[in-house]
Specification:
Blueprint (H helix, E strand, L loop, with lengths): L3 H14 L12 H6 L8 E2 L6 E5 L7 E7 L14 H17 L9 E5 L11 E5 L6 H6 L7 E3 H14 L1
Antiparallel strand pairs: 1-2, 2-3, 3-5, 4-5, 4-6
Length: 168
């Protein structure tokens, strides 16, 4: 294929692959590929929400360290608006359910949250679910530290989104 046809095909490929396309898929995003089962090295854990997937973190910070990720590409937690509060709550529920399915039931010893930009390694919304929080190692206690500039708990994010709504 040459000329305008090739240029058109290349433009269509770029629009679908690199920027979140119309269907919420970014072929350059590893989490988008995982959500579509295009990364054979990553096993998806059972998840009862068809709009979310869950899998183990590749660098676990705790004995149970899972990521809950929307199937459709979404930006980081700083891009969320008030209408995303139900999504964040569903992500938390999925995280709790996965912990329980993996025989962890002390939900008072769990840390769930997001890295705050610019401290995000992947620009696709993902909730870290860590348990038991009391067994986080030295570096993990720093990396997933509550009330830091780089990590926000899911509850803090919801509160922030509710506050933004009240202010507007």
């Amino acid at each position: 294929m040459a000329g305008p046809e090739a240029a058109g095909a290349a433009a269509a490929e770029r629009s679908e692959g690199g920027n979140g396309g119309r269907d919420g898929y970014d072929g350059k995003c590893v989490f988008c590929r995982i959500a579509r089962r295009e990364e054979p090295g990553t096993a998806l854990l059972p998840c009862e929400d068809e709009d979310l997937v869950c899998f183990r973190d590749i660098k676990p910070g705790a004995p149970h360290h899972y990521l809950v990720v929307p199937v459709k590409h979404m930006g980081n937690c700083k891009t969320l608006k008030t209408e995303h509060i139900p999504l964040v709550k569903r992500m938390m529920e999925v995280g709790k359910a996965v912990l329980q399915k993996n025989n962890f039931n002390d939900l008072n010893d769990v840390r769930m949250g997001f890295h705050w930009p610019p401290f995000c390694s992947i620009a696709h919304l993902h909730l870290h679910v860590l348990a038991p929080a009391s067994q986080l190692g030295f570096f993990s206690r720093l990396y997933y530290r509550i009330n830091s500039y780089w990590f926000i708990t899911a509850e803090q994010l919801i509160e922030r989104l509710q506050t933004e709504n009240a202010a507007s």
